[in-house]
Write a structure and sequence with these properties.
With 340 residues, the protein is an alpha/beta fold. Helices cover 37% and strands 26% of the residues. It folds into two domains: 121 residues, NAD(P)-binding Rossmann-like Domain (Rossmann fold, 3-Layer(aba) Sandwich); 181 residues, Dihydrodipicolinate Reductase, domain 2 (2-Layer Sandwich).
Amino acid sequence: METPVRIAVVGCGAHAQVAHIPAIRHCRRAELVALCDPDVRKLNHLCRLHNVPRRYVEFEDLTRDADIDAVIIATPNHLHAPMAIAAIEYGKDVLCEMPLGLNAEEAGLIIDAARRKGRRLMPCLNTRLRPDVQTIKKFIDGGELGRLYYCKTGWLQGRDSWSLDGWRGQSIRAGGGAFLSLGAPLLDFSLWLMAPAKPLSITGFAHRRSSGPDVEDTAFAMLRFDNDLHLTVEVGWSLLMEKDFTYFNAFGTSGAALLNPIQIHKQMHGHLVNVTPKIPVKGIQRASYRFLVDLFVDALLSGEPSPIDPAGGLVINQVADAFYRSNATGSEVKLPSSEP
């Protein structure tokens, strides 16, 4: 009988509780063997709730546990790189929440460590695994929308939806504000859907409503790609809106695709026809994390490379770094992949 992958979750906040822990428990080839968090009361409660045998307050103690095969890093942003690198150095495979690091340099250090130690590193690029996003990808790759020429995406939240108390309001711990936090999952599936087109440059603008937190609460950007394709991104968590609004629209020469809810229209016989297939509409985000953990576990058991390349996480950090440079200088900034 196949031995399950023994996984520990580091960081027991809301994200770990609603996404990572349920996904591990749903995976028959994985076993949740440990949790780690400095909040002892929360740690003890979750271990009892999920019948987790080992609990750690100190991350260093967890890394030395030889009975743990892999670690999921779900901590505040500034801890992603040091914890991922430490886990890799102690022989653990790592599934790391986004962003991989506070900047591209940190993300590169994690990737280098995994390569040097021969460990699997997979970024939590789960939004591309949503069933609705996967469906749109099939239409795009099949050429059914024609040649894409413009895409736009956004995540707009009311000012009561996102708390900037604690680390999220501090650039030294968060790495950035709305663009990095809300933009990362949007860039995940947007860049994946638009591939093989590669982003060349970005022009960005950030806004801070108050002088308290030192990160932006609203951000706008335009990315230029190598095949005359453009993507606009708008994110914000302090807007005067009644409810959250997340979207992605892709426009091609013979069709268009929209998310939330999914709609796909094709030009057929001179008319625009709705060709949206029926897909499950409930639990889409939860399903994406289940697929993510399944892919991670399958790669560990099969010995195959990570099915989601860590380079995808690095690119998002590179785009974010360029966005903040563009906002600071008021000019278009080239991305590393486009430079000679």
